[in-house]
Amino acid sequence: MSSRRNFIATTLTAAASLTLLPSVNSFANIGNTYRRNGDTKPKLRFALASDIHYGQPGTPFDENTGNMVKWLNADHAANHLDMIIVNGDLVHDRTDLLPVIKSKYLDKFSVPYHTIPGNHDRADAQLWKSVFGYEDRYTVEHGDIAFVLANTADTQGKYVCPDNTFIKASLEKFRSKKIVFVILHIPPVMWSKDDVFVDCPDTMELLHGYPNVKATFHGHDHLLDGVRYTGNKFPHFFDSHIGGNWGTDYKGYRIVEVDENYQVYTYQVNASQNPRLNSNKL
């Protein structure tokens, strides 16, 4: 496994049980099968994938991107997905490839999808809107559940804090929602000096200040596929990577399910099955 930095194993939780999210499963079973608690159809079921790095030299980026579409469409056919979120680094320093990946791959998803820029997309609001029809910060509503998505990088690839005025206005708007999820490619907190993130104390104050904000979801660090915490056990989830030339040995994505009682279940899918996870022989 290649890496651009040392992995701090002690900060990654491989299996967790959360106070705010009562049941969390970090990985699907062998073969990517998963049995949810109860037989009732979830109120909402969605997938998050990130870090495709389409166009990165020396990588099979067409194969990786095609696999992502195949995996997620198969998941939808087997279990139903309400939507897919592609959380940053769609392309690798090639803004000209954003329309290509959209038309050639993302538009082939069987369900609605939403995107947000990462640092390698080098995009601003105007560019993102020209390709996807919405700016680099926006909200999505699904009944009593809402999503706040915001850019965390500038057009030079520099890590920046999200637009906190927008974050605050959105969280105020959604005060009456049962659940709010925040989607940020780069986490707004440094857990250690070795992290490749950015400290945004004002953002963290907002995330911790609204009880209905249940979690944030991040990409960016291809080695992370579990959960880290801030404040009073506030969870930040990661989803490994789809492409690029470094990270976990496998490629995968994260599933989130919200049941009829607004309990949230999430797990990581080892889509490439390389290597198998949580496989034991006694």
From TrEMBL:
GO terms for molecular function: hydrolase activity. Residues 44-222 form the Calcineurin-like phosphoesterase domain. It comes from Mucilaginibacter terrenus. The keyword Signal applies. Residues 1-28 form the signal peptide. The keyword Signal applies. Keywords: Signal. This is Metallophosphoesterase. Pfam families: Metallophos. It comes from the Bacteria.
